[in-house]
């Protein structure tokens, strides 16, 4: 699963992709609309030019036919041509006469023009018609009528510009709105990612509680169901682990009892018997018997010490009777006898004691393994043990200033066992060590188990 940060970047790109899609749709509809509008514009300019030319031809034909009735036909002809002055669609000129006359389209030249590419796109070419003029039965030049699509194209170009501006004014805020909306709609996914990250870290109490649209609310409900089931499973797991641990402790206690009650008295009896045999053999001068009897007594003494030490490990001395502090003090005494050169420090906060047999045993076993590891692997000059309450958890810390864990240190039963014990009570175990800088083991046990809480 991706982390919150990288998920955010995915969301961002998804957001950009969606907005890009909207932009493509806008651009495609603009291109399609533009193509259709261009085709229509081309047809309408063509029709306009055709009708302007037809009307112009009619006017010129009528005017030329009436020239004979005029007092001054050349002048009437000039006036006829001049009557087209200002026509937007036709350029009319009289050529071949005594005086060439042209009727300018407009009094002033046009200030603006549509771009060349647009005129080419509309694609209407000017057409030209020549009407011959005869005065008094002789040819008197000809009138040329030429269509000028330029003005019509300019008009369409201006309309196009207006529509484009309108579209831009509409699409820019629309895209911005969509962008903001998508960001808002995807924000819950960010929180979902944060929730998943917390689940990944073992915090099953996390829940999503905000109101969401139907698609996302299904996701939220599934997330909450999953978190709930994980929470329940973790609770069952914890209970099983606790049962396992207390069974283990019970079994150890039974073993200790059997060793103490069954083996102890017999060892004691054998020891007395061996002492008696030795005494009588010495009294009767039986040196060959006295020596083995002494050896038996010595072996039994050794066995008794071993049994005592096993009893101490199987059943922490004083834990049930005097509590955690005394039991650990006893443990320290055990090691002090063997390593008097080490500086031992013990600090137990009063509120950390008396938290129940299971917690006491767990802390005792963890401290026991830490001390044994420090002696076996660390060769420290000082060991500090502290147990107290921090941030709603019971924290046991064992710090030694020994050689630290080497880079190739493996994992034996000790570390696994300590971790399992801490986890069994819903807690955690943390090891910090640098070669040459000692080792610190920290066990955290929650003081109360969490209940599902709406935190997101
Ligand atoms: N206090 C320490 N100082 C230096 N090294 C340590 C310390 N504690 C543990 N280690 C290293 O971590 C390894 C694993 O420790 P762990 O207690 O799991 O196994 P072990 O002590 O070797 O055997 P056992 O299963 O009997 O406990 C050790 O072998 C040792 O290399
Ligand atoms: Mg060990």
How would you describe this protein?
The protein is an alpha+beta fold. The chain has 3 domains: 4-105 and 112-182, no CATH class; 206-248; 322-456, Histidine kinase-like ATPase, C-terminal domain (Heat Shock Protein 90). The protein has 10 helices and 11 strands. The chain has helices spanning 4-65, 73-82, 116-122, 150-200, 214-283, 287-314, 319-322, 324-338, 357-378, 413-424, and strands at 90-95, 101-103, 128-135, 138-147, 206-207, 343-348, 382-390, 393-400, 428-433, 439-446, 453-454. It has a 5-stranded mixed beta sheet. A 4-stranded antiparallel beta sheet has the order 2-1-4-3, covered by helices on one side. It has a two-stranded parallel ribbon with strand order 5-11. A hairpin with a 2-residue loop joins β3 and β4. The longest helix is centred in the middle third of the chain and has 70 residues, at 214-283. It is rod-shaped and about 185 Å long. Bound molecules: adenosine-5'-triphosphate (ATP) and magnesium ion (MG). The site of adenosine-5'-triphosphate has 18 residues, from α9 and α10.
